[in-house]
Predict the structure.
Amino acid sequence: MPMLDQLQPYMPLIIMLLTGLVAGTIAGLLLGGGGLLRNLIVGVIGAFVGGLLVHAGWLNLPASVTSITNAVPYGTQILISTIGALLVVIVARFLGGR
């Protein structure tokens, strides 16, 4: 079993995968469809899309929302990832003709 010191360099990746899975699951519940692998992929891609939207200044969360999501560990990150995942699913359905 790996020690915590050995896992430390991989913690950001592990956290991104876990928050992506949560975000993809929420997007799957809201828009239907999914499965564990699909939710993980959509959530991780959504995390990148949400992060790009925040970085570009196109997605600004109000302070009233972030004050609530900051109370949950990684809550704001999950919210931004979920918004990105929802956009990914909507665009994929639009391009796929479904």
